[in-house]
Write a sequence for this structure.
């Protein structure tokens, strides 16, 4: 046992560490909530409201001056101009996804921000619970507490809450889908299948994260549920096209057009490192390779599959660093024996590599205000760790080994 392991085995050291992390998490949550009820600039209440009242949110994103024709939207933007801030519509979500936000539009803009903040806190609690009941079910309680508190204390989570983003929403429903698939809470299989389909359908809201993660269900051979969850979005998109009097093709192309303006504004993803066309091709190639890996990887490698998909999903396409709070889930690599075997130097080195990567993303970027040098250094670390995990997955395919050894 190493000196670090011996230190962490001491119950007093564990108690102090948990208290310190809990205090840091509480401060982080408080700061995030304060920003959320004041700003929540990424909430997209305006885009959802535009769709509800029959206005084209994608056209308004291209021509923001036209929002003056709609009093409901003007009230939303006045909320920001009163704080000397500029805000304009950026409807980069498909219409079927904006429909999921429609219930929020029954509230006034300010009330909606508060409601969304509360929901994000509930989604957070749900994620921590569902991860514990699934991938981390056999993890040491102290270790899981450290993982969860680190996530809450990190800058990505705080900013995720503060800007009113949707990753918590989407990731909660992804984890709920995992729970339904693993635990089968209903007696009838048709109910479990339906629940899984609906959870996947909702989880696609942050499709840049959850579309790659959905390959986990390709690995689990849930072909019918994957197909139906996608089909529901096709049907809803057609309904929105009829509602706005637009073509189905337009409703697909328009949000992608808006999203393309943001492609180079991410944190450390491929869109930042490569020209626009090249980054899209690279993302497509990576997605296909990940799909191939999930199809041919031996069974009982769920933890490696999740870690691999999580790591690549955050850099395949546009992501600001507030989405990287899900990096905590990659700790599933260490809940069971890996291909290296339990207690080996290689496994210990991988754990240290992971811890360094998480700390760099959660805290170092914030210290240096995400300047170019800090992002380059963290990107190098992140890509190197992702490469190592990818090699592990490929090695498992070649050797036929599983995560159980």
């Amino acid at each position: 046992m190493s000196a670090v392991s011996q230190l962490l085995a001491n119950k007093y050291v564990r108690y102090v560490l948990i208290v310190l992390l809990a205090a840091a998490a509480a401060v982080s949550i408080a700061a995030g909530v304060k920003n959320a009820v004041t700003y929540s600039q990424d909430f997209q209440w305006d885009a959802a409201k535009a769709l509800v009242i029959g206005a084209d949110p994608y056209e308004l994103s291209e021509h923001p001056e036209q929002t003056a024709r709609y009093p409901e939207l003007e009230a939303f933007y006045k909320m920001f101009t009163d704080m000397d801030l500029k805000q304009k519509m950026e409807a980069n979500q498909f219409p079927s996804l904006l429909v999921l936000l429609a219930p929020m539009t029954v509230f006034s803009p300010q009330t909606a921000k508060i409601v969304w903040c509360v929901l994000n806190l509930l989604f957070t609690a749900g994620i921590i619970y569902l991860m514990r009941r699934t991938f981390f079910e056999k993890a040491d309680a102290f270790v899981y507490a450290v993982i969860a508190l680190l996530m809450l204390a990190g800058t990505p989570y705080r900013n995720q809450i503060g800007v009113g983003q949707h990753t918590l929403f989407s990731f909660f429903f992804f984890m709920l889908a995992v729970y339904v698939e693993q635990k089968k809470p209903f007696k009838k299989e048709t109910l479990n299948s339906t629940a899984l389909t609906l959870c996947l359908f909702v989880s696609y809201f942050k499709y840049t994260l959850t579309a790659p993660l959905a390959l986990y269900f390709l690995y689990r051979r849930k072909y019918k549920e994957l197909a139906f969850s996608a089909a529901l979005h096709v049907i809803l998109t057609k309904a929105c096209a009829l509602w706005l009097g637009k073509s189905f093709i337009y409703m697909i192309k328009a949000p992608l057009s808006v999203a393309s303006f943001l492609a180079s504004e991410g944190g450390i993803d491929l869109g930042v490192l490569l020209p626009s066309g090249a980054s899209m091709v690279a993302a497509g190639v990576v997605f296909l390779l990940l799909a191939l890996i999930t199809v041919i990887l031996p069974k009982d490698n769920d933890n490696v599959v999740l870690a691999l998909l999580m790591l690549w999903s955050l850099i395949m396409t546009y992501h600001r660093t507030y989405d990287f709070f899900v990096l905590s889930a990659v700790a599933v690599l260490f809940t069971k024996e890996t291909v290296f075997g339990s207690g080996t130097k290689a496994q210990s080195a991988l754990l240290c590599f992971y811890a360094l990567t998480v700390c760099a993303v959660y805290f170092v970027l914030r210290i240096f205000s995400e300047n170019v040098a800090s992002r380059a250094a963290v990107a190098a670390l992140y890509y190197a760790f992702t490469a190592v995990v990818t090699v592990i997955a490929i090695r498992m395919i070649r050797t036929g080994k599983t995560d159980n050894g």
